[in-house]
Amino acid sequence: MNSSGRAKLDQVTQILTNLQNDLKAPKLSVQQRKQLLEQLKVHGRSVENSDPIFTKNGLQTLSRYATEEKASATSQEALRCIANALLLVPATRQILVDLDFGPWAAEKLDSESTDDEFLLSRVLFLLTYETTLDYTNLVQENHLADNLNAAITRHAKRYSKSTPQHARGHTSLMDLMALSETLKLLFNITHRSPDLSPSFSPCIPHIFKILLRRGIPTPPLKDPTNFLINALMNLDLEDTQHTHPGTQTAIFPSFDPPCNASHLIAILDKALTSYPDPELDATVSPLLTLLRRIYPLAPPPVQTHMQTLLLPTPAERSKPLGKSDTFFSRLLNLSTSALTPTLRGSISAMLFELSDKDAATFVHNVGYGYASGFLMSNNIPMPESVARANAETDGVLVNPITGQRLDREDVVEQQPMTQEEKEREAERLFVLFERLKATGVMDVQNPVEEAFRSGRIEELADDED
């Protein structure tokens, strides 16, 4: 250890000693305690030569200042030190759980302070990893769900029309950071403990309210929009137990039932042109998952509206499907992209669901070329008759392979084959089928040989024209 490293370690040790002595016999002023904790926070931003902070003794000292200090500024400095420790040294998380810090943090989350919300949500979020913290107990005994729902409700009130225009929305970075941490905590809890999801149903309308009234940012899935979507993904949107009967109204409000679905689709549209393909898989997949969860819950008029926005329009069929520069074409091309393995499956599944989970309708909507891979990989049989796939669009037949209107297909003018060309093609086919038979993979009958045997081919003399 060099001299600067030794000096830092000595400073960290001395600060913790001063803080521990003050807990035994209080002598420091509030300002002095805050200054010592600020110095410790700076040192604790790096693991090197800060070892005493990450021990049980160091965390116990910090947790006592966080929980026992009446001055909020001092308590918050202690929480910042704790949050840094949990982030940098994962082993400290279980130490803090063993110190019974979780129940206090869950109850303290009822604070209306944005700084408290940010720090407490961050600490509780980090404790969802590699610890034995019982979040079910925090919900049942320490009001975690109630306090988290209340925090999101406070954020949503910023977007109420009754709020003065100058104060509407999130006006500071800390407000947005606090919302993001709370949403991340909500996602992790409901992801790891799905049975707790109904406890957080009251925040569903407030999340949709924030999402809708914030509009579409640039890029469209930047924080906290992505966290709002992620949080909704695990919540009990169906609400089968009817513990919160307003859930369905929250998703499909009576004043404009399709508004939330339309907004999510608009975000998806923007996202597909805002991120490179390699990033789309991780960025957009949660949004697709949410749309797929919403669709089966939607009333028929909203389902029809979603189909209108997500499936090809009649104008789209003037070209083969996937060949234009439209939202639907981008979706369709991503459904077969090697760069988006997760997204391509989700897109195909969504389009299949929008097609009433009917193979023939699916082929009609996307063309057999795009549909075949999904149908085969999911063992979905194609009906012998694809009459519906070759159905009419605006009274005009469409090509079942490409999805293009037949009357818009290019007419290919081709000279008829000469007798010599026909003979060469027949010989080529004969050789290909003989090679296939030789592999033993398939028992095939060479059509040229079969035609000769049936008398449909006549061998001509060398001098015959």
Automatic annotation (TrEMBL):
Homology family: Belongs to the synembryn family.
Keywords, alphabetical: Chaperone, Guanine-nucleotide releasing factor
This protein's name: Guanine nucleotide exchange factor
PANTHER family reported for this sequence: SYNEMBRYN
Pfam families assigned to the protein according to its UniProt record, in alphabetical order: Ric8
Molecular-function GO terms, alphabetical: G-protein alpha-subunit binding; guanyl-nucleotide exchange factor activity
Any one Gene Ontology cellular component term annotated for this protein: cytoplasm
GO biological process, one term: G protein-coupled receptor signaling pathway
